[in-house]
Amino acid sequence: MGSKKILILGVGAQGSTVAQRMDEDAAVSEIICADRDPKAVDELVRLLKKGRGAQIDASDKDSIIAAARGVDLIVNGLPLRWHGNVLDAALAVGACYQDFAATDALADNWIDSIRTLYDVYGPKFEAIGKFAIIGTGSAPGLICAATRKAVRELDVCDTIYNIVYEGVEAKRFLPFWWSPITALTDMSEEAYAVVDGELVQTPPFDLPIEREYDYMGLGRPVTLVEHCHDEPVHYWFNRETFFKGAKNIWFKYGGAGVDFSKPLYRSGLLSKKPETIGGKEVVPFDVVLAHVPPAPKYRGEIAEILAEGLVMDTGCMVIEAYGQKGGEDVLSEVHVFAPGLADSFARAGITAEMYLTGQGGALFTKMICEGKFDQKGLISSDMMKEEQVDYYFECAAKLGITLECKVSKQ
Fold first, then answer.
1. 298 and 229 within one domain
2. Which one of 23, 179, 322, 393 has the fewest CB atoms closer than 10 angstroms to its CB?
3. Are residues 95 and 51 in the same domain?
4. CA dihedral 65, 71, 75, 77 (to 10 degrees)
């Protein structure tokens, strides 16, 4: 199998990390880095041996098609509203497709948009003999593969918890280590859960649970709450085929970003409805977003943050799958371990978020370029074959991303 030419659209924290990781991979011959920001493109291309830059207008499908001609794979790191254009461009040039989260821009609501991805775009990619995979960052993505590992240990699955605590906090004001607009949008919307087999919506920041893990080093439980995320929706669509009939599925989230966002939400400052204040029309969400700094992605900036010192450098990603095995009630747990901020910078000159999400995403890119996916059509990252899940974590371990798995009677 010959080496592959890939196009990376959007060179933020995720896209730039994928580019750097794939620059070292023998399965890739050329990396086209495209963004509307020429500085970001130039900064990235300077770091690459196989890279070249391009500018694109994501609102113009033809602009994407022009950049994509001749590529084998499009890695889409653009905002969700442009995903329809990128999917159509991949089909137009006959390329495989990968993104980091499912778009909400293909229908009037997110569920129908995901259904459109499976039911409309899936057959389109299958018809041209190509493969598309959605939701391939850390969460969704790596956490979905880890959930499959947990559920594998059960005969029947009743309840799944996906638990994420973001415990990396700088001394400077920096509430988010990834796209602020994505983070604040997720914080402002109702969450999804599966309860008794039905997909339901729950208020953000609601239904708290507490967990404490010794390896976090906090000496206290952390609170995790409802948060709008892809995983319960994907698992609900695929619960019979891949999750052994799970009837209850939750995504629980906590950390500095939640602590920052909750009072803003409660005060109405994450509303996207225009208001008239002092005779001027403003959108509260836009005002807040304008005052939140972008996620750091340049080496010098990250070094400055580390030099200033950190408040915390910890976190957790845990899967709890409750069910039955051999006629007994059991809990199958998977804990994901990955480098923190200081370690990620020492290893690769990037943040912990870029390391886990970007490099977690790059493992899917690597698998596509190595021909490890023999599926045609479109899948989400929770729909991999068992051998693909195992290969994914075999590769992840080489990056210091490891799992601890255990099964206990309940």
1. yes
2. 23
3. yes
4. -40
Give the separation between CA 83 and CA 59, rounded to whole angstroms: 10
Q: Is residue 241 part of a domain?
A: yes
Mean pLDDT of the chain: 95
Task: For residue range 61-102, list pLDDT tens digits in order.
Answer: 999 999 999 999 999 999 889 999 999 999 999 999 999 999
Q: Apex CA 34: angle with CA 355 and CA 175, to 5°? A: 40
Amino acid code (one letter) for 65: I
Q: What CATH number has the domain bearing residue 92?
A: 3.40.50.720
What's the average model confidence in pLDDT over 218-238? 97
Same domain, residue pair 147 and 92? no
On whether residue 22 sits in a domain, the answer given is yes
- pLDDT interval class at 352 (50, 70, 90): very high
- 116 and 176 inside one domain: no
Please check whether residue 296 is in contact with residue 345, taking contact to mean a CB–CB distance below 8 angstroms: no
Q: Whole domain around residue 206: which residue ranges?
A: 142-348+400-409
184 with 113, same domain: the answer is no
Which residue in this structure is represented by tokens 């602020």?
180
309 shares its domain with 175: yes
**Which amino acid is located at 291 in the chain?**
H
pLDDT for res 179: 86
DSSP letters spanning 340-407: -HHHHHHHHSS-HHIIIIIHHHHHHHHHHHTT-----EEEEGGG--HHHHHHHHHHHHTTT-EEEEEE
Place of tokens 């694109």: 56
Strand partners, 281: 276
- Look at residue 1 and tell me whether its pLDDT is greater than 70: no
Torsion on CA atoms 150, 317, 226, 264, rounded to nearest 10: -170
- The verdict on residue 389 lying in a domain is no
Find all residues with CB under 8 Å of 293, minimum gap 6, and list them.
173, 174, 180
Domain count for the chain, please give it.
Answer: 2
DSSP secondary structure code for residue 296 in this structure: P
Measured between alpha carbons, how far is 201 from 204 in angstroms, rounded to an integer?
A: 9
Task: Read off the CATH number of the domain in which 219 is found.
Answer: 3.30.360.10
